[in-house]
Amino acid sequence: MSNLDLTPPLRDCGGRGDIDAEPVRDVIRGREVMLGESTKVRRLLPTLGRRMVGAWCFIDHYGPDEIVNEPGMQVPPHPHTGLQTVSWLRQGEILHRDSLGSRQVLRPGQLGLMTSGHGISHAEQSPAPHPDLLHGAQLWVALPQDHRDTAPTWEFHGELPTVTATGLRGSVILGSIDGAQSRGTTYTPIVGAQLDLDGGAVAALPLERDFEYAAVALSGGTSVDGVRLDPGDLLYLGCGRTELPLEATDGDTELLLLGGEPFDEKIVMWWNFIGRSGDDVRRYRDEWMTGDRFGTVDYEGDRLDAPPVPDLPLKARGRER
User: Fold this and answer.
1) In a domain, 15, yes or no
2) In Å, how far are 20, 69, 97, 145 from 125, measured between CA atoms?
3) Per the domain annotation, does 200 fall within a domain?
4) pLDDT (tens digit, 9 = 90+) per residue, 139-158?
5) How far apart are CA 252 and CA 254, in angstroms?
6) Contact 111/162 with Cβ under 8 angstroms?
7) d(Cα 281, Cα 294) in Å, to the nearest integer?
8) Is residue 171 part of a domain?
9) Can you tell me the distance from the alpha carbon of 312 to that of 148, in angstroms, rounded to the nearest whole number?
């Protein structure tokens, strides 16, 4: 998925300097932005208050949206470098096409994992015809220096490993949790899981003490470590935890749990690129506009033009404001 902001800021992110080794409970409300002309999303990362959780560096939560008589998601071809995209649906369908020639319809509970590495372009659309509702999340994972120029790849995993407890069902998207290991390729110690709780369920999920974590509420009312979350909220949890108390306080509940070792490296995020300097992203932008590096997507329509890079010096920032 693309960041369609026409004036995206340059951001330095990453590094361990601002990581608190103790547990915290920091609620971040999503900022509403438009994805194209038809889909409104709640942007949870990056924000002024927090820029990364482990290697997770971008989170958009969208829906549930009624799209019976609407086009649904319509994101034309656009480029990526230095990251992985994770497409995660709860309702609806999305057609993925990329410059490798991949073509895949994604449905709820299936993992679409695209590693951009050196450079890739892709498009995402609600197919025609499509289901009545659209609900999901788009997430990015920053690639470390040793792998940021790796060859681009596309992975599709139709079934994922699960974890269960009384009133709790979980799907492991990336990494491992409670002994269940995803087959999705990762380049840093990381975890992502979908958690479904029955109404009134109380559970505790084991965590890695050295990981930092965040929980994203997708539906229902949830208490995470005693903090009430509504759909579209992100709760940053910090490090130093060995388990996470959960309670579904208002009917059935859906959550995303995201975490990983704090990301060592500083990165620069701008538009749909991740580099290590402003010069990197300016070069990526120029190569997209001239047709180099990113290939072409089998798509009926125009691709996205990149906005101009602001002529501003980068200000070094950590993971927090």
Assistant:
1) no
2) 39, 15, 9, 31
3) yes
4) 999 999 999 999 999 999 99
5) 7
6) no
7) 14
8) yes
9) 24
What are the pLDDT digits (tens) for 163-202?
999 999 999 999 999 999 999 999 999 999 999 999 999 9
Structure tokens that stand for 22 in this block: 């103790």
Rounded Cα distance between 83 and 4, Å, is: 17
Structural tokens at position 179: 């002994």
Distance of alpha carbon 278 from alpha carbon 268, whole angstroms: 7
| pLDDT for 315 beyond 80 | no
CATH of residue 155's domain is 2.60.120.10
Instruction: Give the domain extent around 171.
Output: 20-260
Domain count, the chain: 1
Residue 85 lies in a domain: yes
Tell me which residue has tokens 């992975």: 155
In single-letter form, the type of residue at position 177 comes to I
d(CA 231, CA 64): 10
Q: How many CB atoms lie within 10 A of CB 311?
A: 7
Interatomic CA distance for residues 142 and 108, integer angstroms: 24
Q: Rounded to whole angstroms, how far apart are CA atoms 255 and 95?
A: 24
Tokens of 49: 């208050």
